[in-house]
């Protein structure tokens, strides 16, 4: 890979991280507050919508890139935030 390609790849990865992480953190908090199975469906819809939005912004195509730079980030941030809120603020 050329240097310019590497810089563009890092830029696209950072864009994906900056979009997925805060929204996943917010969805973790919403999951904690509502504590209902419908929130899981809403979270999946939000994840798919984010995937399409990031794909349009970065012009990246392919599930492999999105799994590593979108899906994994979203699920990890959601899980960490939900666990954090569950342990810090009991009902």
Structure keywords:
elongated; 91 residues; mainly alpha
What does this structure look like?
This protein has one domain (12-88). The termini are far apart. The protein has three helices and no strands. The protein is 88% helix and 0% strand. By secondary structure, the chain is mostly helical. It has helices at 3-34, 37-58, 63-88. The model has no long low-confidence stretch (mean pLDDT 89).
Q: How would you concisely characterize the structure shown here?
A:
The protein has 91 residues and is mostly helical. The chain has one domain. It is built from three helices and no strands.
The biggest sheet amounts to: none
CA distance, first residue to last residue: 52 Å
Number of domains: 1
The ordered H/E elements are HHH
- Helix % is over 70%
Portion of residues in beta strands equals: under 5%
Provide a count of the helices: 3
Number of strands: 0
The rough form would be described as elongated
Q: Mean pLDDT score, rounded?
A: 89
Supply the helix-strand structural class: mainly alpha
Q: From the alpha-carbon coordinates, what is the Rg to the nearest angstrom?
A: 15 Å
| Low-confidence residue ranges | none
